[in-house]
Specification:
single chain; 236 residues; mainly alpha; Four Helix Bundle (Hemerythrin (Met), subunit A); three-stranded antiparallel beta sheet; 3 strands; Arc Repressor Mutant, subunit A
Length: 236
C-alpha cells in the first residue's frame, strides 16, 4: 500500500537538506555524478540552460557548479569555446597515477594507524559483496565496489584532506574512458585476492605491509593503463 507523508514533513526534510548543503553544491554533485557514470562524455559541451532545465533549477546554481567542477579538474572552461567535460590524455592519466601511487602508500600506513572496529566491519562488508560480484562475473558492480573499497580506505585514514585529494585524483582518472583493461573473470579473482591481502595487513596492524601492498596494487593499475594504450596513443 502506498504511504502518504504530510506536506510539513516533506518540506521540513527539503529545508534540512538546503540548510546543510547549498543548492549549487547539490547541482555540482549531480553533474559530477553524470560525468562519472558516463551520462556526460569527455569532450561533450555543457550548456547552462539545458542542464538547468534537466535539473529543474535556474542557471545561477549551474554556473556556480561549473566553477567547482573546474576546480576539481572535471570540466574545462575556455574563452569563446564554452564549457565541456574534460578529456584526459594518456599522459595526464599517467601523471595522475604517479601521484596516486604515492598516496596509496600513505593511505596504507595511515589507515592502519587509525583503524577501528567499525572500519573493519565496513571493509568486510564491501569485500563480501566483491566476492559475490566476482563469483557471478558481474563486472560493473565489482568495479563500483572496487572504487568504494579504496575510497573507504582513504576516508578511514581520519585525514579529510588526504581523502579529498584522493577522491579528486580518482574522479579525474574516470575521465579516461578507454577501458580495455576492465576486469574480466580472471582479473577479478586476482583483484579480490589483492584486496583481501591488503585488508589482512590492516587487520594485523601491519602498516608497512599495507602500504607496500597498496602501492604495488596502484602500480599494477598503472601498468594495465600502459598495456591498454593503442599504438596511436604511444608518444613518438
Amino acid at each position: 500500500m502506498r504511504r502518504h507523508y504530510p506536506i510539513e514533513m516533506i518540506l521540513r526534510d527539503a529545508f534540512t537538506v538546503l540548510r546543510t548543503r547549498s543548492l549549487p553544491n547539490l547541482v555540482q554533485e549531480q553533474i559530477e555524478r553524470m560525468i562519472l557514470d558516463g551520462t556526460l562524455s569527455p569532450g561533450e559541451p555543457l550548456r547552462e540552460a539545458a542542464l538547468a532545465n534537466t535539473l529543474g533549477v535556474s542557471r545561477g546554481p549551474v554556473r556556480e557548479a561549473f566553477r567547482g567542477l573546474e576546480e576539481k579538474g572535471l570540466i574545462r572552461v575556455e574563452k569563446n569555446c564554452g564549457v565541456q567535460v574534460r578529456t584526459l590524455s594518456h599522459i595526464e592519466a599517467d601523471q595522475i597515477y604517479e601521484v596516486r601511487i604515492t598516496l596509496e602508500a600513505l593511505i596504507g600506513r595511515k589507515v592502519t594507524e587509525n583503524m577501528t572496529r567499525q572500519g573493519i566491519n565496513e571493509l568486510t562488508a564491501i569485500l563480501d559483496d566483491m566476492a559475490i560480484a566476482a563469483e557471478d562475473s558481474n563486472v560493473h558492480p565489482y568495479t563500483s565496489l572496487n572504487l568504494a573499497y579504496h575510497d573507504t580506505l582513504a576516508r578511514l585514514t581520519g585525514n579529510p584532506q588526504l581523502h579529498e585529494t584522493y577522491r579528486r585524483l580518482v574522479s579525474q582518472l574516470s575521465l579516461f574512458r578507454r577501458r580495455a583493461y576492465l576486469h574480466d573473470m580472471q582479473s577479478m579473482a586476482l583483484s579480490l585476492r589483492e584486496h583481501r591481502a591488503i585488508f589482512q595487513a590492516i587487520a594485523d596492524a601491519d602498516g608497512a605491509r599495507a602500504s607496500e601492498l597498496l602501492r604495488d596494487h596502484a602500480e599494477d593499475s598503472r601498468r594495465r593503463l600502459h598495456d591498454a594504450l593503442l599504438p596511436s596513443d604511444v608518444p613518438d
